Amino acid sequence: xxxxxxxxxxxACLAALAGCREGDGPIRPxxxxxxxxxxxxxxxxxxxxxxxTRQFTPDTVRGLSxxxxxxxxxxxxxxxxxxxxxxxxxxxxxxxxxxxxxVMRCDExxxxxxxxxxxxxxxxxxxxxxxxxxxxxxxxxxGGLFWPAITNNSYASGxxxxxxxLLAGRDTVALGMYDSNYLAGRPAPTIAQAPDRVDVRQTxxxxxPSSLIQRITIRGIQVTEQLVATGELxxxxxxxxxxxxxxxxxxxxxLDPTIPxxxxxYEQAWxxxxxxxxxxxPGDDALSYERDLDxxxxxxxxxxxNGFGGGFxxxxxxxxxxxxxxPPGTTxxxxxxxxxxTGSRDWVAGQLNERSGWSMLSGVRPxxxxxxxxxxxxxxxxxxxxxxxxxxxxxxxxxxxSVVVRVAILLADPVTGTFASGTQMEPGEPTDRTRSLHAAxxxxxxxxxxVAAAAR
Length: 456
Description:
- The protein is mainly beta.
- It is built from five helices and 26 strands.
- Strand 12 (145-146) and strand 13 form a beta hairpin.
- The longest helix has 14 residues, at 442-455.
- The N and C termini lie far apart (66 Å).
- The model is unreliable at 1-8 and 10-27 (pLDDT under 50).
């Protein structure tokens, strides 16, 4: 008797990918015969037990019996996207159908080190990778954002899209600063590069890793990223992010079978971007806010980085994150925190403190001490390894709905004569225009105003 089984994937990390340790193994065994293999997008090479069949999706693999691992791989722009499925071929007259999305997942330093690429324009050099983490080289030691581009002066260790909301109207979920194991990059980035312009576009899915797939956690959001740096505006990278609810799509359900039929709704959602701005040595940075510019920024609290070259050792720059465009009717929230100590720390998707992410991105309950202006968040009690974020909300995202934000990452010199290298400068009250930091950050404020004008 001929039987047919159709198989959608619960695992999506190719074991053969160097440095890929996400942990999604082959799916549970299923009975079948010949294997019909399809992928999105098509054209991926089909392997049986790591042996190249020289066939491409969609196609049928014949002449098999017993247990086999079917792997599908698509190599593009130096990156391998794929999935793996395990089958049992118990009847030569039966057929098993395998179909799923091609993705790239990455959760170890060796993977990020192998996959990152640098781009340079307008005096900025920055890293991207196909998984979807931005301004990230290896997650430690900076190296994600250099300024000026010709130096090794490092200003960031990583960037992450920011999303938090109430899943199904009741469960508070959020993506954390380094939740790279939740990102599944989709084929394939497009890159346009000229001497005075870089334009990188790529797509990633927010999907729980297999070890957390059964938990109530953030999931089912597609993010389309576009990074642009041009010679028309020095020291700036503009990032456009499109967040779309894809919980209704069968392709997404292939990776996340726990999602309800028809998808899920996000209420009270907040979207934006988070940056880990390590200005040289990470533990001596401070942060502050400029509410009228929708800007949060970081600086070296002593204006002293011995490792910096190009004359910047005694005058390290400031790095800022500005919201340029937010969804209509939303509020922009500026926030920041430290990785540990001084009353705050990172939250992590899939853990109990995941709910802290929604509190921070929404501005409802930032870490204490909290600024009385709701649009301004946590005020750390001292310098540390800071993170900064800009977010907008609340929005409601039903399946198929999408929202767009644009943010700018900016760098600038401190204003000459307003600081003394080696002398600590406290952030002070963010709304006080007479404080020392407000004068020192004048060039950053001017740059933030310029990028907003240029974006109109």
